[in-house]
Amino acid sequence: MDVVAGIDIGGTKTKIGLVDKKGDAQEQIFFRTREYTNLDDYLDKIRDSIEGLKTKSSIPVNVIGCGIGAPNASSRNGTIENAANLLWKGKLPIVKKMQERLDVPTRIMNDASAAALGEMLFGNAKEMTDFIVITLGTGFGAGIVANGQLIDGYDGFAGELGHVDMTMGDGRLTGLGVKGGLEAYVSATGLKRTILFMMSKYMNQSRFRDIAYNDLHGEEITKAAEEGDFIALKAFDHTANIMALALANFTAFSQPEAFFLMGGLVNSGKWILDPLKTYFEDYLLEVYKGKVKLMQSGMPGKTAAICGAAALIWENHR
Q1: Is the pTM of this model over 0.85?
Q2: Tally of domains within the chain
Q3: Cβ 274 vs Cβ 236: under 8 Å
Q4: Does the N-terminal or the C-terminal CB of the chain have fewer CB atoms within 10 Å?
Q5: Are residues 203 and 262 in the same domain?
Q6: Cα distance between the two ends of the chain
Q7: CATH number at residue 139
Q8: Is the same domain home to 80 and 172?
Q9: pLDDT, one tens digit for every residue, the chain (318 residues)
């Protein structure tokens, strides 16, 4: 069976899967990105992981290509360039290095743009021509589709909406040094930072007053919200408010039919999504009210990023 190796390079985890033509991940694995400070060692680990998945497969598979989704990836240059949440800096020739290891056609794209392509091929956007995918993980990514075309940009870096300033230059720094940048507030990392902000603003008791920042995880914030923790509820509301304003602004430049939300922050469910929907409708221009849907990915949550990466190859084999 023909499959594509889909690779999602994240600031925290690297996810790899063998994806068939229908968008189903036959086998998958992940490992921690930051354990590899040397890029070549990291790429060797990816190659070995793919070989391991091929061996593990219950049926013989033929890898016909490799698709990679990554932050700050240039689809036109085949590079990752100074990604905020990755250890390796400079202009990294990822496609060239991976082709040397795998000897199959290889493409790379901004991870959120790859996810948008996957949503068109395999998910809930099959019948849509205008939509935006928002990835909410370590950072904030965006993949934009308008008039049925993925907006790739002049140099392949379109969609860096996580670094749009939301505070007129007087807020938190993003990983790229943008003051008040969106991903410093709306991301799994941003939510953690907001927990600290809320504890400094309010005196209410909270479980988080006894937890160090590095020991704080999104799942725990969600659990605290379920238990009525004041600080957790305030943090989710604050995050949803900022995100809603950003999405309302983004609506004005391309009028998407829908925003597809995916990534770790979305797993918080109603605690982030309910206030988001309310604020979003409030912030929309009158002409857009009631027309723009907020949806979750049509690809299984654990494989959406992998399948999106694989779509870079499968779009040319359909």
Answers
A1: yes
A2: 2
A3: no
A4: C
A5: yes
A6: 15
A7: 3.30.420.40
A8: no
A9: 999 999 999 888 999 999 999 998 888 999 999 999 999 999 999 999 999 999 998 889 999 999 999 988 999 999 999 888 899 999 999 999 999 999 999 999 998 999 999 999 999 999 999 999 999 988 899 999 999 999 988 888 888 899 999 888 789 999 888 899 999 999 999 999 999 999 999 999 999 999 999 999 889 999 999 999 999 999 999 999 999 999 999 999 999 999 999 988 898 999 999 999 999 999 999 999 999 999 988 887 778 889 999 999 999 886
